Amino acid sequence: MQIIDTGLYRFSLESDVKHVSTVANSLYFDSGNVEGPIDFSIRLVYESILRRFIKPQISFYSDQHSPFKPLPISQAAAVLEWGMNWCIAAHEFERLLIHSAVLVKNGKAIIFPALPGSGKSTLTAHLGLSGWDVYSDEMAIIDTSTSMVNPLFRPVCLKNNSIDLIKSWHPKAYFSPICKDTQKGDVAHVKVLNWTQYQMFEKAPIVAVVFPKYIAQSTLNIYQLTQLDAFNTLSKNAFNYNVLGAEAFDAVAKIIKSCRLFEIQYSDLNEVNEFLSEDVIG
Prior knowledge:
About 30% of the residues lie in helices and about 30% in strands. The chain is α+β, with helices and mostly antiparallel strands.
């Protein structure tokens, strides 16, 4: 059994696929095996002995539940990360979860809710390897009483052309092996911080909500959003909005009222970095 510590949540991992343990060690090994309660018991296993040898497939289990169909063994590393995301999204009922990246600088957090193809993860990886603190690539985990956002110790998921781009810009970063031909295309995970850095992170106040949209060869265009538009989009991006009910409504409303609200269209990540650093964080 292997322990994966993400800071807020701890996973016990069992797998009969050596590749899975190797990748997990590379992404999370520096957190150590600090003693503490286990939040999720997960397994990545072959469905049958036959599937070890003929078109081998792997299944993800959380306890006895398997939320995904079996997938090719070549996608095992991606399945592990997707499965961990599913565990959190399906079982976190105390904090508000928003499908969003979270980047922090000078103790101030910006959340980036975005649809697939927006370039969110590419932006997150580049900024995370350029002086920003990455609190999350996939979900903002927000305390409803204070609207403070929590950090997670997780890698950033890159897809398709973004993998080579980030490798060319940050050749010293650690990348997991590429999982080919997944439902999201080619997928790899990049490690954007170590455990020592993570332990210095504290909950951060959200100062801005930025909806990014990548448009090739475009200049940076910045639009101020109305509170109504931002509220509607943010609430639709929340995993557990309906579960938390009025508590989620109040939390989103508090964020919207206290934050600067933008939509940006961009192609140059350095222009975005300059805008966020100088005009948003200040």
